[in-house]
From TrEMBL:
<comment type="similarity">
    <text>Belongs to the glycosyltransferase 92 family.</text>
</comment>
<protein>
    <recommendedName>
        <fullName>Glycosyltransferase family 92 protein</fullName>
        <ecNumber>2.4.1.-</ecNumber>
    </recommendedName>
</protein>
<dbReference type="GO" id="GO:0016757">
    <property type="term" value="F:glycosyltransferase activity"/>
</dbReference>
<dbReference type="GO" id="GO:0016020">
    <property type="term" value="C:membrane"/>
</dbReference>
<dbReference type="InterPro" id="IPR008166">
    <property type="entry name" value="Glyco_transf_92"/>
</dbReference>
<keyword id="KW-0472">Membrane</keyword>
<keyword id="KW-0328">Glycosyltransferase</keyword>
<keyword id="KW-0808">Transferase</keyword>
<dbReference type="Pfam" id="PF01697">
    <property type="entry name" value="Glyco_transf_92"/>
</dbReference>
């Protein structure tokens, strides 16, 4: 959707550079980061096709990534940040007039109306002429401005999406609880997860090492989530909701190579009620609903009684408690080549695909927010057995392997510091 802003746009297209995990593991401490001796921040983004004196203005268009999608109708699809578009604004991809869609459905987003910068999905039919180098021209004709950007190709070969379950983790920022991250990875692996895409803004040294451990096993892809380009006069990061996490959600649609992909926070788990893994449930559901584009799960509060991250023995998995008195937002598993745009739910599928609701008798989204495990939490919870003793021992074994890796001479380890984590929560709540 477009706002009623009528002023002309001066568009600068900045193309963010991606960094490998190897670079992530070598980053230096940012002196401006909170607790600079504890947290690591990713390097600032670089711009492709521009001089060091980036001409950034309040009307700039910042392109994050562009794709040539060969999976269905051949299109160029672009993920970008911008302030709200004027009614008369036009973006062209090659010779084609592009469709501009606010990922949050409206601009400004109703959930964060004071945030000036928003996420956009821009698409057009594949231009007749695409440069041999795999690049395409993006332009604003009325301003006589254009730039050539590179395209990542999404193959029409569907064999890579024939099986498996991937997990997308929204951008981690000021994150230090490395045992929680191990807990998350291993509980999801019990459900059949085969790969994780973790978007990272700033993490502690130990979290960085845990990501490196799982990366070496081929289980994790780390996607650096840098701050947007800024100048002394214009800084989009100061008016962007949660680092633009909605754009990260949609970027994961293009990155995943599994048949099924879940988008969840690190305290959320999708668990079937019967004796089967989530992947087995999804396979069964897709067979019964061949035109499914996504599967939607209802919310239940989860509490692990006695959970203590300074003494991670995982005994709390034997003391799982649930409460369904408060209904939170649903979460979903999507099928990437049937999904157009994500928000809290898939708000746009490619036809003829549609969402399928999973009944509460079959599975739930279990949300284990830390505040619900606090001793002073005033809510009725009832016991539920989610994990077998065999599963708990498997999690402990994997945790011991990670611990051995972290305590090797080449790595540093810090136990979770509750004082630091409480201070971070306090800062983020302002």
């Amino acid at each position: 959707m477009r706002s009623s802003i009528s002023r002309k746009r001066i568009v600068t297209v900045a193309f963010l550079t991606f960094f490998s995990v190897a670079l992530l593991l070598q980053i230096t401490i940012s002196p401006t980061m909170f607790c600079s001796n504890f947290f690591y921040e990713l390097p600032p983004p670089k711009a492709e096709g521009f001089s060091r004196n980036l001409s950034l203005s309040h009307d700039s268009l910042i392109i994050y990534r562009a794709y040539l999608d060969l999976r269905k109708l051949t299109k160029v699809r672009i993920l970008a940040f911008s302030r709200c578009f004027a009614d008369d604004a036009t973006v062209k991809i090659g010779s084609e007039v592009a469709q501009i869609v606010a990922i949050e459905k409206s601009c400004p987003w109703k959930w964060a109306p004071s945030c000036d910068w928003n996420s956009f999905y821009i698409s057009a039919k594949r231009p007749l002429l695409v440069e041999n180098s795999g690049r395409v021209q993006v332009s604003l004709p009325h301003l006589n401005r254009s730039i050539s950007i590179s395209l990542s190709v999404l193959s029409s070969d569907s064999r890579s999406l024939s099986s498996g379950l991937s997990i997308c983790v929204p951008p981690l920022y000021w994150f230090s609880n490395w045992p929680l991250l191990v807990h998350f990875f291993e509980l999801w692996r019990l459900q059949g997860a085969t790969h994780f895409f973790v978007y990272v803004h700033s993490v502690s040294v130990s979290v960085r090492s845990v990501l490196g451990f799982y990366f070496q096993k081929g289980l994790v892809t780390v996607v650096p989530w840098n701050e947007l380009p800024s100048t002394t006069d214009v800084n989009p990061n100061l008016s962007l909701y949660r680092l633009g996490h909605s754009l990260a959600h949609n970027d994961c649609v293009f990155r995943t190579t599994s048949r099924f992909t879940a988008l969840v926070d690190i305290d959320e788990f999708l668990i079937p009620s019967r004796n089967q893994t989530l992947l087995e449930l999804l396979d069964d559901k897709l067979e019964k609903h061949p035109l499914a584009g996504s599967f939607v799960f209802t919310h239940i509060r989860l509490r692990f009684d006695g959970q203590d991250w300074s003494k991670p023995d995982f005994s709390w998995l034997r003391r799982s408690l649930k409460s369904d008195k408060w209904k939170g937002p649903t979460k979903y598993v999507f099928i990437a080549d049937r999904t157009r745009i994500l928000l809290n739910q898939v708000h746009s599928h490619f036809p003829p695909f549609s969402p399928i609701m999973i009944s509460h008798e079959e599975a739930h989204l279990y949300h284990a927010r830390s505040s619900w495990a606090a001793p002073n939490a005033h809510e009725e919870f009832e016991p539920i057995k989610l994990y077998t003793e065999e599963s708990i021992q498997a999690v402990k074994k994997s945790f011991d392997e990670v611990g051995a890796f972290l305590t090797s001479p080449r790595t540093d380890i810090h136990l979770p510091n509750k004082i630091v984590s409480d201070l971070v929560v306090k800062c983020l709540s302002r």
